[in-house]
Amino acid sequence: MRGGRTICLFAGALLLASCGGGDSPSSNGGATGGGPPPPPPPPPSGSVYSIPPAESLGAADVGTVIAQAAAEARSRGAAATIAVTDRVGNVLAVFAMPGAAPTANIPGAPNGDNIDVQGLTIPSAGAAIAKAITGAYLSSGGNAFSTRTASMIVQEHFPPAPTTAGLESGPLFGVQFSQLPCSDLSARASDGLIGPKRSPLGLAADPGGFPLYRNGVVVGGVGVIADGVYGLDTNVLDRDTDLDEAIALAGTVGFEAPVAIRADRITADGTSLRYTDIEYPQIGSVAGASFAGTDGALVPVTGYYSGAGLLAGSAYGTEASGIRPSTLADFSIRDAFVLSDGTGANRFPVRGGTDGADLSAPITEAEARAILEEAFTIMSRARAQIRQPLDSRAQVTISLVDTRGRVLGIVRSPDAPIFGIDVSLQKARTANFFSGSFAASELLAAPGEVPQFVSRLRTFLGDPQALTGAFAFADRSGGNLSRPYFPDGEVGQPHGPLSRPIAQFNPFSTGLQSALVLGNLAQHLGFVTGASGTDTPRNCTGLPGVDGGNTRLANGIQIFPGSVPVYRGGQLVGGIGVSGDGIDQDDMISFLGLHNAGQRVGGIGNAPRDIRADRIVVQVGSRQVRLRYVNCPFAPFLDSAAQNVCEGL
Questions:
Q1: Neighbours of 377 (CB within 10 A)
Q2: CA 97/CA 306 separation, integer angstroms
Q3: Which of 168, 175, 155, 165 is closest to 233 using CA atoms?
Q4: What is the pLDDT, as a whole number, of residue 192?
């Protein structure tokens, strides 16, 4: 892809048509607001989780958010593009102020040798939507994360700063390549499904995106771009005066995240996360701004928003949101939530494997149900890492797939972050794929640069038969091989074979992960801008289709921990993925939940110990480095003092 880049065609045809609209503003609190959230309602009898109250954004609220953000932009002499979404990613408005630039630029590679989506010119509306979705999707009733938070946790060192070289990569390294426009899970505005919706650019790490709250309940997100750069913050140790962030923060007035759950009240590996570098006293008095008196226009965005007025958001947890409480017909544990199709039907009911033609004994429906139930039970006992108050229960999404990557069930807790739905499925598929006998052959049959990663991996491991099913790979194992340093964080060491070298790496080009979906992103951006009349298929990667259908990686791969493959004896039969809390918690829920399911029903379980990827040793200089498989929290449970709960399993 070096030299003549095929996707630079987007730089020329990105002007978006506009139309007017208006609504009355709403009043919802003061400029600094966001105090302690009201206590959640008590769990229903027999349950351990509370269900978030049904709150949503009205059309007038959307107008208020836009008017406030625009008022701040005017006061700073800037012209912004502003997007508002609800919690499940429905785009409620995209607004361009007079003079707002129709495009923005993604930073190039550090060495100037751009690849994947580095250095692209993109539509400003797409960037604003991605920021709004990120603020909404990463947040919950127990944590409020912004796009600045996202920036901090996806870079090659955590925390990212010039003086932190030598530290491991961010805990959610790679999450930016989720919610992809090609995902077979994330819905499209045109397909009749309500949510969760896709993002035009995946998740954003560019400051200027925040969640929106009402009465302690996350109801959506706001995203802003005015500075022309869709980038990230490479130094978390200073405080930036970021134009996009100031404008977006003004939009949240009256819809602020509660102070007690903002990212700066949450730690990862002992480091406090960052929510914003701009504080409320640094923005102007915007409360009371009227959308009707705001100069600018609503702009349609192909595939996301018609431009026909301000829209009301759906209330999360209702059928209209596409995510609802399960019934006993859906799942046996009453605390579970499932994805719905808007008419009451479960999109991903528990079922047996579809791969009977490939396996002597696929996962049965009873086994699938046991795996999901046992993983859900581990989650409900586990102490959360990324939620406030302390000693909250973990809340995640759990996905199970067969060897073809087909979904055998998705369940989640009531208030798990939305991003984890797509990511848990990515993780399940990734663990299954890289553990299968088919991985190398299908990667070698893919277009573009993808086949080269197979040869790089085989050379790096000294194994000419790597990726043919001899070893079981958890996402933590594949993540080890996907970092720009190996071992992770050790400056001066070689890059992992599935990564870009550090001189070329940034979060817009991670390696195999981004190369697999480059064609999808190019086609989609062409569709959004009008350069192409055909959208990307609802099927990520150019890998061969399985049984005439989608690929095994139909929503892309993920490269941070939280999944394990599922085995019957020595035979791979699928994968389980977990996402929504700390990565060690995600690892434990998948690994220990699968183990307990095997103890309960027999026949299935984790990979045999002698084929797990932590048996692979890589020669690095004069020493040997072993891959990792899973890493469970030391004392993880709220109802037990048990320690080292995964030891010896």
A1: 17
A2: 17
A3: 155
A4: 82
Contacting residues for 149 by C-beta, under 8 A, at least 6 apart:
138, 263, 273, 274, 275
Contact 398, 578 (CB under 8 A): yes
Tokens for 535, please give them: 């959208």
Q: How far apart are CA 529 and CA 16, in angstroms?
A: 8
* Nearest residue to 322 via CA among 209, 211, 412: 412
The predicted pLDDT at position 38 comes to 65
Give pLDDT tens digits for 71-113.
999 999 999 999 999 999 999 999 999 999 999 999 999 999 9
**Which residues have CB under 8 Å from 648's CB, separation 6+?**
none
- Give me the phi and psi of 528, to 5 degrees please: -65, -40
pLDDT attached to residue 290: 95
**C-alpha 252, offset from chain centre:** 22
Tell me if the bond preceding 196 is cis, omega within 30° of 0. Answer: yes
Mean pLDDT of the chain: 93
Please, what is the end-to-end C-alpha distance for the chain in angstroms?
A: 44
Beta bridge partners of 571: 568
Residue 219 sits at the vertex; the CA angle it makes with 218 and 221, to the nearest 5 degrees, is 95
**How distant is the alpha carbon of residue 68 from its chain centre?**
28
- The CATH architecture annotation of domain 320-489+556-626 reads 2-Layer Sandwich (3.30)
Specify the amino acid at residue 440: A
Give how far Cα 572 sits from Cα of 153, 315, 434, 559, Å: 32, 40, 11, 20
* Single-letter code of the amino acid located at 480: N
Burial of 490 (0-12, 13-18, 19+ CB in 10 A): middle
At how many degrees (to 10) do helices 512-529 and 450-461 cross? 170
pTM for this prediction: 0.94
Burial of 329 (0-12, 13-18, 19+ CB in 10 A): exposed
Q: 220 near 368, Cβ under 8 Å?
A: no
Q: Where are the beta strands (DSSP E) in 50-207?
A: 81-86, 91-96, 103-105, 121-123
Helix residue spans in 489-647 (DSSP H): 512-529, 583-601
The yes-or-no verdict on residue 555 having pLDDT over 90 is yes
Select from 442, 78, 399, 140 the least CA-distant residue to 266: 140
Chain centroid to Cα 67, Å, comes to 29
Cβ-based burial of 113 (10 A; exposed 0-12, middle 13-18, buried ≥19):
middle
Q: With H, G, I as helix, E, B as strand and everything else as coil, classify residue 292.
A: helix
Question: Measuring CA to CA, which residue among 93, 178, 95 is closest to residue 399?
Answer: 178
Q: Report the candidate in 327, 382, 301 with the shortest Cα–Cα distance to residue 589.
A: 382
Spans of all domains in the chain: 320-489+556-626
d(CA 306, CA 599): 52
Q: List the beta bridge partners of residue 297.
A: 96
User: Do 118 and 508 touch, CB atoms closer than 8 A?
Assistant: yes
The dihedral through the CA atoms of 186, 190, 194, 200 has a sign that is: positive
Per-residue pLDDT of 597-618, as tens digits, reads 999 999 999 999 999 999 999 9
- Quickly tell me which residue has 């890059």 as its tokens: 495
Per the CB < 8 A criterion, the answer to whether 220 and 212 are in contact is: yes
* CA atoms of 396 and 58, how far apart (whole Å): 28
Q: Please state, as a whole number, how many other Cβ atoms lie within 10 Å of the Cβ of residue 246.
A: 27
